[in-house]
């Protein structure tokens, strides 16, 4: 079964169980009306017993439907339809047997009332069971045939009206109902196709967004991804004035690498270094990204200065241990700058970036292939404070 067909079957069953709930008051109300009309013509014990059976079947079907809703229709659609049809058949038999037994016992006017209300139930079932022919036929035929038989068998002059009504019922159930049921099914199928199209478009849109945040060369986050993630994590950290760490990594003497080995080899070097840096984006909120050119950034939410410096040193050692050959400095190494901010709503993210960049500058000035950290936490000072009235 294709995905469309499976979803169609599930949706038809879901609508079957949903719409039945609207017919519950109708069944109970017509049952009460029959008891009132038949009172005095049928023994009270029979009337009460029949009505209690109707209420019992209604309650059982309600509880069964509720259970299936709570289980989110995990059973097969075919089984769910069979279960529903059993309940529909039981209800149809109760009404049909009552019609067969009670119609001959009442005057002609009340006979017409019973037959008309029986047809009303069939018409109501047409709406509530439009998505299941099996359930509708199991309900409709046991309901209308017995009263018509009783009506035609009572007096010879009623045979013709009973046959005419039976012919109408057959035409309605075998001609009108199937055509309308197909129209409803086509509508459901169309809605499902639209939903699948929307889902497909949504997935494509998510892929486009993901690609727009990915550096095509190194296959890690790009500058846009970094900026978006920094903004998101900054707002999260600001709620509780948490720490947010940033590490900036620069490949040492990368211009010499490109000048001597060419840009294709330089691209390969960038890819290898990016892969090494990505290993240190260990937590879901961490992010490794290409910051620009041969610079990379690592964002470390909820990380202390000591923790960020430790990660930076492990990262530097890992890149060094890769021993990627360098034409002028033997192997590829990186210089690393570390800064950590104590975030609040008044502090700008640019302060963290600047502090990390300053630390990177010191690492390069002090001989490269080393880690330098900001001397203090980046936090709000007196010059950054702003009056709420300014």
What do you see in this structure?
Pfam families: GGDEF. One of its GO terms (molecular function) is diguanylate cyclase activity. By secondary structure, the chain is α+β, with helices and mostly antiparallel strands. Helices cover 67% and strands 10% of the residues. It folds into 2 domains: 197 residues; 162 residues, Reverse transcriptase/Diguanylate cyclase domain (Alpha-Beta Plaits, 2-Layer Sandwich). The C terminus is likely disordered.
> Runs with pLDDT <50, length 5+?
382-390
List the total number of helices.
11
- The total count of strands amounts to 7
Query: Based on helices, strands and strand pairing, what is the structural class?
Result: alpha+beta
Helix content: 55-70%
Mean pLDDT: 89
In terms of DSSP E residues, the strand content is 5-15%
The run of helices and strands is HHHHHHHEHHEEHEEEHE
Set out the fold topology.
Blueprint: H1 3-38, H2 44-70, H3 77-102, H4 108-128, H5 133-154, H6 159-212, H7 223-240, E1 243-251, H8 254-261, H9 263-278, E2 287-292, E3 295-301, H10 305-321, E4 325-326, E5 330-331, E6 334-342, H11 349-365, E7 371-373
Parallel strand pairs: 6-7
Antiparallel strand pairs: 1-3, 1-6, 2-3, 4-5
Which key phrases capture this entry?
390 residues; disordered C terminus; transferase; alpha+beta; two-stranded antiparallel sheet; 5-stranded mixed β-sheet; Alpha-Beta Plaits; 10% strand; single chain
């Amino acid at each position: 079964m294709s995905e469309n067909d499976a979803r169609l079957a599930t949706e038809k069953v879901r609508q079957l169980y949903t719409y039945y709930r609207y017919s519950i008051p109708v069944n109970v109300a017509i049952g009460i009306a029959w008891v009132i009309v038949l009172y005095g013509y049928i023994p009270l014990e029979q009337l009460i017993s029949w009505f209690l059976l109707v209420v019992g079947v209604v309650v059982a079907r309600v509880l069964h439907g509720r259970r299936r809703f709570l289980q989110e229709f995990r059973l097969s659609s075919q089984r769910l339809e069979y279960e529903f049809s059993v309940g529909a058949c039981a209800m149809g038999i109760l009404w049909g047997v009552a019609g067969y037994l009670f119609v001959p016992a009442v005057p002609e006017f009340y006979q017409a009332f019973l037959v008309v209300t029986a047809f009303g139930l069939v018409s109501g079932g047409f709406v509530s069971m439009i998505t299941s022919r099996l359930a509708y036929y199991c309900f409709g035929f046991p309901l209308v045939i017995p009263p018509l038989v009783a009506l035609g068998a009572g007096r010879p002059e009623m045979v013709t009206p009973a046959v005419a009504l039976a012919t109408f019922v057959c035409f309605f159930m075998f001609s009108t109902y199937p055509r309308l049921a197909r129209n409803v099914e086509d509508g459901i199928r169309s809605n499902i196709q639209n939903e699948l199209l929307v889902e497909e478009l949504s997935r494509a849109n998510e892929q486009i967004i993901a690609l727009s945040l990915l550096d095509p060369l190194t296959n890690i986050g790009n500058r846009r991804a970094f900026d978006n993630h920094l903004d998101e994590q900054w707002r999260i950290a600001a709620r509780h004035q948490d720490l947010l760490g940033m590490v900036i990594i620069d490949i040492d003497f990368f211009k010499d690498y490109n000048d001597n080995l060419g840009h294709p080899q330089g691209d390969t070097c960038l890819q290898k270094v990016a892969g090494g840096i990505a290993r240190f984006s260990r937590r879901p909120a961490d992010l490794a990204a290409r910051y620009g050119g041969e610079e990379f950034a690592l964002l470390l939410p909820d990380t202390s200065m000591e923790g960020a410096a430790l990660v930076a040193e492990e990262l530097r050692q890992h890149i060094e241990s890769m021993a990627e050959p360098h034409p002028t400095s033997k192997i590829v190494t990186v210089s690393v700058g570390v800064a950590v901010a104590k975030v609040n709503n008044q502090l700008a993210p640019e302060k963290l970036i600047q502090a990390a960049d300053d630390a990177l500058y010191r690492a390069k000035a002090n001989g490269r292939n080393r880690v330098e950290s900001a001397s203090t936490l980046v936090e709000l000072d007196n010059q950054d404070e702003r009056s709420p009235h300014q």
